[in-house]
Sequence to fold (958 residues):
Amino acid sequence: MRGCILAFLLSLTGFVAPAQTIFPRPLSPRTASYRIQVKLDPATKRLDGRQTLTWRNPSNDPVQELRFHLYLNAFRNLNSTFMRESGGQLRGDYIDKDDRNAFGWIDIRSMQINYGSAGRPGENLKPRIQFIQPDDGNPDDRTVIRVPLSEPIQPGQTISIDMDFRAKLPEIFARTGFSRDFYLIGQWFPKIGVYEPGKNTSPGQWNCHQFHAHSEFYADFGNYDVSITTPSDYLTGATGLLRSEIRNKNGTRTQRWQAEDVVDFAWTASPAYREVNDVWRRPSGGTVAIRLLMQPDHAAQAQRHLEAAKAALAYMHKHVGRYPYPNLTIVDPPAHALGAAGMEYPTFITAGTVWGMPRGVRLVEQVVIHEFVHQYFMQMLASNEFEEAWLDEGFTQYFQGRIMDETYGPRSSVIDLFGYRMGDLESSRSAYVHIDNPAIGPVYGNTWQLAEGHYGMLTYQKTATWLRTLEGLLGRPLMDEILRTYFRRWQFRHPRGQDFINIVNELAPRRTAYRYGSDINWFFEQVLYGDQVCDYELYEVRNTRKGSEYRSTITVYRRGDARMPVEVLVRFSDGKELLLHWDGRSRTRTFTLQQSAEVVWARVDPKQKIYMDINFNNNSYVLSPSSAPAAKYAAKLTFWVQNWMQWLAVLV
Amino acid sequence: MQLLRSFWLTFRSRRVVGWQYVSNLLLGLLVLLPSFSTLQAETGQSLEYMNLLEGFDYSVFEDFMQHHAGAIRPLVAAGRWLGLAYLVLTVFFTGGTLLALHNQTAFHPRTSSLRKPAVSFGAFLSACVHYFPRYLRLVAFTLLLIILWTAFILLIIALIMGPFGDVLNEPGYALIAVVGLLLIGLPVLFILCVADYARILMFRQDERRALRGFEQGWRFVRQNIRLTYGNALLLWLIGAFFFLIYLGIEAVFPTTGWPTILLLFILQQAFVWGRVFLKVWKLATASQVIDRVDIASETRAQPAQA
Fold:
């Protein structure tokens, strides 16, 4: 009874009161908004949900049908496109094929559309639901549905759809699901696709892809009002802000969460969490509340998470733009649920660490920074992750490298342990340039159609490396201006890769006095749409005495098929240096110099601007090389061989 | 006290330590000289490798490995085989080493001032050849025991982890890993300690049967666990401690040019020499312990004879 009275009082004070707003005016078009009530049953690992979707036709076409993602059906059986592509294995996580409880699914139990006309009853759409497979025609894939309408939705018209759904969570796989009493619940509700308006005379169409092993998501902005019911001893975190909470009589509690101008909604629940709170103050005013949901075993690493999050907030604010949301939730999954680690949702990210992680191994910081940067490249700049994954993952990887290297040291930001050091950007470069065949394929393309087994390298590391190369060519200030412009123009919209290229072409030629031509397309044709490999080599230096002067020749080779403008730095025996320029187009270039001093060494691309050069070590040529490095490493190798001999000899 | 006495005994046998170290160094040189030439040739005229001189440069190192790993691979393979060669060589040296240690102790343990002259190289080699087959069999048996014990413990851990894997937290996993390591490591050290005592007993009793020798060694170590296993553990700890010290020094050692590289090389070789010394010291300690136990048992036996 007391519970009922409390619920009644709460309902008067806010729980069912008109929603408070987070932003005084909309930041986004708010095309698709959801009001959801969901209940988690830990015994059955099921979700029972009811949602009302409010959707506005953003195009100039009458829309004849609706399309929805049912992402959880990717885990329905081994025949889904996701499972076929992944082979039941993703990022080292395996689904237990013999355990029925390891699988997950979602069913729509009812669907009714309301066209918004006064007095008109809702129309039952359930019988019209059809599973479709727009990407691969796999009849066993149930991750996309199409719902034909009896009456088209007119341009600008807003409709609402009521749906009841039931979902079974998979055992943590591809970031979502359960593991023991830990729940990370993402991609969990029926989610409408993106209706993309047509261009010129072509009609608009739905962009609603199947769930693939190596694809993420694409969604419209909207508001979310989500009431989550869990056992009352569970601590919950979610996208957006917690607005109210009531304790129910049956040992559960219901929390109402609100988010505005976001593209998705995810949440977590676990009785094990330890909560840590902190605040980051924006230089321009206001604060961002940071909430950590830590595993008790990782409590000692809370400060590392906070420092990394604050470093990322400050860096992105300064170099790209404002993070407008009032909060950020960071979830630390347990070691038995690391499949849920390293994932981004609006204002809500998952990190990932293990007990006893040494301070000199900054994987914690790396993942926090990476997932936070996605708040810009994925959330605010809501690009299509199915078709242009490089636009969010690559840009995020690039900024992760910049933030890590600036915060923790350029050559030691990721690892600094027992004299072994590794920076972040250089680790991205290494992952790309050191694969067997760096020309494996272009970065551009649907993620599930990229070169087999190279999705990660192409979208993350290669893109980060060519972005660093673009920065090298244009300079950091111009690169930041381009990225700020890109963010300012496209935030809370759906940019395509070409939109970014257009901004580069708009700003770069003028700012560089047309040094690289009237546009920069030649660069993107090679690094994004092409598979060219870059390798410049300083092949030879020769000096010939001519009277009181020296005639020196410096020969540079272009070994790869990528063509980049490069500089060549020449050092003379009198200590003077000379910087030469080459457009890098021909296969070889020989510079001839007549100077009073002989050339001691020369180096192509001395500042490593062309960061995607696959071999920095052949970039220089010195006439009298020191053999000391060879001696040092020969001694080290010998020492370890001697130790190896002695380790075996302990048997005697 | 026992350890100190055996330390001096080892010190007096420094020629034998020297011969074993030289054999290790000579095998090492089989890697050092070609690796220096290979690295020099592969690094060519590039300036970038200077970045590896003062510290470590991930990009330079990884670029090198990507483009020149093929040249390094045979050297590493050679190193692997050298390990096996050195293992056989160490088995071979055992007889000579025990002869040298035996000569450095007294004719009778109670009159330790009387010593035989230092063992000649010829006598050393002759003892090496004489005892080689029996010690090779002993090593094979020791290795078999270690493999069986390790497999047994891993099986036990797997059986424990099966039902409890889902309820353990991360420190719990770490604890099981540490306990597992100890359950493997400590008995393995015990087996190695038994093998050391078996070697000495086989030497003194001219026992050819490895199994019989191991059995005697086992009985002796079990009856004198503190003196035998305790001393052996202490010597292992000393070795591990110096290894950590070396790693710490190497991490901060500034190799800016030839003089400092030479200094590093000397430091490395001093460490290797120390490990050889430690190995002989371990045998010397075992020898001393056996002497001491013999004296004690003889002393107890004398009144009865009277």
Summary: Confidence is low (pLDDT under 50) at residues 1-18 of chain A. The longest strand of chain A covers residues 46-56.
